[in-house]
Amino acid sequence: MVNYKGTILYNKNIEWNDSLNENSGHMLDDGLNYQVPVTLRNGSALIIIRLDNDKAKNMMLIIAIPITLLSIIVFFSIFYYLSRRIIKEVQQIALIVERIKNGDHHARIMLKGEDELSQLGSNINEMASAISDTIEEIKKSELYKRELITGMSHDLKTPLTSLIGYLMLIKDKKDIKNKDQKHYIELSFRKSIQLKKLIEDLFEYSKYSSHSVKLELVNFSMSTFIQQITESYSPQLEEKKIPFESILQSRKIRYTGDPQLLSRAMGNLMDNLLKYSEGDRKSSLELMNCENEIRIIIKNRVISLKMDDMNLLFERMTRGDSSRSNIDGSGLGLAICREIIQLHRGEIHAKMNDDMFEIEIQLPC
Q1: For 284, phi and psi rounded to 5 degrees?
Q2: Please, are residues 268 and 336 in contact by the beta-carbon 8 Å criterion?
Q3: Contact 362, 347 (CB under 8 A)
């Protein structure tokens, strides 16, 4: 018997008595001693009953076996649930990867949670998207290539056939008059120039679209540059009786770029304006200095242009006029213009505002 301070008051071996039930005290953590509180005349004390070793072991086994069995059951239940989920997710990933391998590049893994398998699934989805985008780009490139070959074959064949015909007339017709001969020679010369232009545009577009061109960067006055462009086209605009206005927000706008390539791009846009302008409404070329960028806007009146997506005009071999015979050109002018602007990290867009056709160029400063 000990008091609450741990001092032994009385010590004697006793037999286990069933009358000491669970309400009389409680088992200590070591499983070998039983503690019972008692009240004495001079205070309170605790009776520490040391159990017989065999009986203690039996009690421990009685308690430990069910707990152990329960722990094993819980462990295997959790393990089975987790392993089943993991196996199911792995099987799904394997199935989707197999579908992607067989050509179904739109197959995607359903993501659940944020564990390692979900991360793996996300990476596979991103890889499948990249593969799908690459294949679409290849298909689009092949389609454009076929369209380009078909269109250029047609455009090259037409002036070449005419040229051969005129030269054969000059060669075979013995009694040809000098006046007719001169006329045929003039027509042959014009067709040769047209053929030369088509071939130059084709090579130029191939060069710019391959991004192998190195820009010769120069800091120059964009205001003066635009003014020179409009002045160089003034005779042609007057000849075609196209009212035209040049609008400069400021004469002190400067830009760092390749003036030769930009001159080529602006020339294509002005050629486009000369070919397709209709009516007597004033066309214009406007230069603006906006925050962090320079904007160039070209406007001209076009009635016959009907397209759902105006930006398709910048694709290869696309014309606003579906007729290919009444207007000279390769159909590559605006496509070349877009490639040059993109080489300058800029953007070019087209839109219709009522009957006014607008092309806007945005060049970052």
Answers
A1: -155, 155
A2: yes
A3: yes
As a whole number, mean pLDDT of residues 105-116 equals: 77
Report the C-alpha gap between 245 and 354 in whole angstroms: 19
Token pair 């070998």: residue: 32
Give the residue extent of every domain in the chain.
Answer: 2-51, 133-209, 218-364
Average pLDDT over residues 272-281: 82
The alpha-carbon radius of gyration of the chain (Å, integer) is 45
CA 42 to mean position of chain CA atoms:
89
Strand partners, 47: 36
CATH architecture of 133-209: Orthogonal Bundle (1.10)
Which CATH number describes the domain made up of 218-364?
A: 3.30.565.10
List the alpha helices (DSSP H) in the chain: 53-101, 116-172, 178-209, 222-232, 234-239, 259-276, 333-343
AA letter at 259: P
Residue 242 structure tokens:
């196209």
Collapse the DSSP code of 271 into the 3-class scheme (helix H, G, I; strand E, B; otherwise coil) and give the result.
helix
Residue 254 clears pLDDT 80, i.e. is over it: yes
Q: Which run of H or E residues covers position 359?
A: strand 356-364
Cα separations (Å) of 49 from 6, 21, 23, 53, 297?
14, 13, 15, 12, 102
